[in-house]
Amino acid sequence: MKHYVLHNKDGTVQVMHMLKQEDGTYSTPKIEVSKWTKEKRDEIASWEEIEPKEVAKYKATHKEAKT
Amino acid sequence: MARLYNLARMTVTAGGTGVISLGSPVTGYLSFNDAGVTNGLTISYAINDPNGGGSEVGTAVYTAVGTTLTRTVTTSTNANNPINVSLSAQVAIAPAAAELNLLYGFATSTTDNAVSRFNGTTGGTQNSGVIIDDSNNITATQVDAGAGAGPILDLYRDSSSPAAADQIGTVNYNGRDSAGNKELYARLLGVIQDATSTTEDGSIFCQAIVAGVFTTIWSTQGANFDVSANAIVHGAATVTGDITGAQINGTSVGGTWVASQAEQEAATATDRIVTSGRQQFHPGSAKWWLKSVVSGGVPAQTVSYNVTSITDTATGRLTVTIGTDFSSSEWVCLVGCQTSSGTIRFTFVNGASAAAGSVELGCVSTVPALADPDAWHACGFGDQ
């Protein structure tokens, strides 16, 4: 897997885990986020790839009010 | 061929160019009658007329009463016409050269290696269209611009008691084996299947040696073509009827045999092959599924199908992004969870987040408050 931290505009984060496909390739955060609803897309400010060992460090802190 | 008899030679009592009358046997010879000739038989003859009449050979009909010969000239010293036979002539029963050439297979034409055949009309021989060359290759040529079959190799088993399973004409292909023995390597064999007049059935068998055992490779059975073992087709095969049997092996199938995406989505065809790349288009098939074990608050992809990423949106919230999207956001998501004994969790789909290519799953505790399960279980059904 590849791992990305998605920085929300409100300062919280989400952690995206990219899954390896049958052909050995990975998608990209840009493609993945483009498939989300506009409301969810608009929350994202930027993203960055992180090492697997950093995943726990970036545990999701997204606010839960919108759920 | 006209008849031949030994030691027959007679004088002539009435000559001319037509029917001649026979007299008595020449000294030291037999009369035609004593030699065995009977009335009405056609014999081969030779006439020699030493008084300038010349000579001729041919066939003649012998008439015992009056003892006459009605001549048909083959060759003569009178430009192959009947000579004017005088009373000095002698008539003998003798073969013509053409007949002996036919007997010994000598061609009389200038065609190299051509086989001669008897001409029943003239009593002589004529060149055939069959050539046997110095290597014993046989060629039969029929000069004919028509559409009928020919030349024809006609093998006739003239049986007085034809019956089913009788083997009839056969063409054999022989060679030698490594021990120098003559070996029958292959043959085409005709067989009677049903000898009933007007409803006859016949078969042809192609047989060959396989690992030392004479084996039928293929045969015809009624109107069917029967291959005894495997049929190897190196090009395309067109089958206009059904294919029945145990199994089809190969690298691919195509055309209308294979269910299209539309046919899979219609879910009505019962005469199509479903392929692994399209089976999921059936409305009863999951378009994606996922089990994600959550460890220490971090979800991981444990097993999945058609899921490209999972996003830990927040505690108790997991966004699933799928590979091949649905055709719209109207599709069914089923979500459940796995929990430890004694722990109660309720899962739901965040309807506001449902899109053609993604969905957000939710999980709450009994408080209620968002809470991670031990593992997410989810799948989606709909049209792609």
Which terms would index this structure?
heterodimer; A: 67 residues; alpha+beta; three-stranded antiparallel β-sheet; 2 helices; 15% helix; flat; B: 384 residues; mainly beta; six-stranded antiparallel β-barrel; 3 helices; 22 strands; rod-shaped
Description of the molecule:
The complex is a heterodimer of chains A (67) and B (384). Helix content of chain A is 15%, strand content 30%. Chain A is of the alpha+beta class. Chain A has a three-stranded antiparallel beta sheet with strand order 2-1-3, with no helix packed on it. In chain A, β1 and β2 (13-18) form a beta hairpin. The longest helix of chain A has 6 residues, at 29-34. Chain A is flat and about 35 Å long. Chain B contains three helices and 22 strands. In chain B, β7 and β8 (125-132) form a beta hairpin. The mean pLDDT of chain B is 91. Chain B is mostly beta strands and 384 residues long. β2 (13-18) of chain A pairs antiparallel with β17 (307-314) of chain B, so a sheet runs across the interface.
Helix content of chain B: under 10%
**Overall geometric form of chain A:** flat
Mean pLDDT of chain A: 88
> What's the alpha carbon Rg of chain A, rounded to whole Å?
12 Å
The secondary-structure class of chain A comes to: alpha+beta
Number of strands of chain B: 22
Tally of contiguous helical segments of chain B? 3
Structural class of chain B: mainly beta
User: Can you list the strand order of the major beta sheet of chain A?
Assistant: 2-1-3
Assembly classification: heterodimer
Mean pLDDT of chain B: 91
Note the run of SSEs of chain A as H and E.
Answer: EEHHE
Order of helices and strands of chain B: EEHEEEEHEEEEEEEEHEEEEEEEE
**Main sheet characteristics of chain A:** 3 strands, antiparallel
